[in-house]
Amino acid sequence: MEKENLVPELQQQAVEVVPGSIKFSNYETLMASAKRLADRVKTVEVTPETVKANKDLRAKLNHSLQDLHKDRMAVQKQWSAPLDEFKNQVKEISNVVGEASSIIDKQISDIEAQERGEKRDRLAELYRLHCASYTGFPVKFDDFIAQNPKLLNKTPLIDKCEQAIADFISKVNTDLNAFASIAHYEEIRDEYLRNGFDFAAAMASVNAKWQRIEAAKAAEPKPKPERSRAEVSPKVETVTAFKIFSEKDAAFAELLLKQNDIKFEKVDL
Questions:
Q1: Phi and psi dihedrals of 135, rounded to 5?
Q2: What is the pTM for the complete model shown?
C-alpha cells in the first residue's frame, strides 16, 4: 500500500492575475487647463492692494488639488482591494499548515531531546572511566560538556566523542602539572579551571594582577625613618665666658657681637 502524500495538494495552486487598468478620461483636458492656469498665475503680481484676491486664488487652487488627491486615494483603495484579499487568503492557508507543521516539530524535538539525553548519559559514563586514571582530576563532566556542546549532536559518533574526552583529560592534566611549581600556582590553577582551560591566558591574567599589585605598592608613600634619640633630644646651649679688662675693649667687643648677630649676655662682675 502506497503511503498517502498530502504535500502535492498544496502545490496545485490556481492563482489567476487579471491585469487591470485605470481610465483617466479627462486627463489631457485637466492637464491643459492646469498648464494654462499655471502660466496665468506666473504673471500675477502680488501687491498690497491685491493680497486678499491672491489669497482667495491660492485657496481655490489648493482646494482643486485636494479634490484630485481624494479621487486618487479612492482609486488606489479599489485597486488594492483584490491584492489585500489575496494576502488574507494566503495568510489563512499558512496558519492552517503552520499549525500542522508545529505538531510535527514538537514530536521531532521530543525525539531529538531524548536522543541527546541518552547520548549525554553515555558520554558521562565514558568520562568517568577515563578520569579514573587520574587521581583527583578536578574537571567535572558538566564543565567539559559545556565547553564541547556539539558532542551531544547526532553527527559525532561515540568513538569520536570518546577520543575527544581522552584528549581533553590528557591536556588538562598536562597543563596542571606544567605550572605546579611556578609562583601563584593556586591562583593560576583556579583561573585555568574557571575560564576555558586556557594555559597561556590563565598565566597572563594572574601575572597581570600581581604586576598591578606591585605597581600600587611601589607608588605608596614610603614612611620616614625614625630618628635616634640623640637626633630628637633638645639642644643644650653652650655658654662661653670671656673676661675683658678694659671698658674700651669691652665696648668694642660688644659692637662686634651685635654687628654679627651673635647672641650674648653682658654680665658685670
A1: -65, 125
A2: 0.52
- The values of phi and psi at residue 170, to 5°, are -65, -40
Q: Take residue 102 and report the three cell numbers written for it.
A: 508545529
Q: Around 166, how many Cα atoms within 13 Å sit in the side-chain half-sphere?
A: 6
45: left (phi over 0), alpha (psi -120 to 50) or beta: beta
Phi, psi (deg, nearest 5) at residue 244: -110, 130
Percent with pLDDT over 70 in the chain: 82
CA gap 221, 176 in Å, rounded: 39
| pLDDT per residue as tens digits for the range 138-178 | 999 999 999 999 999 988 899 999 999 999 999 999 998 88
- Cα–Cα distance, 88 to 131 (Å, whole number): 61
Q: Are 147 and 192 in contact (CB under 8 A)?
A: no
pLDDT, tens digit, 9 for 90 and up, residues 13-30: 677 777 777 788 888 888
The 10 Å Cβ neighbour count of residue 142 is 10
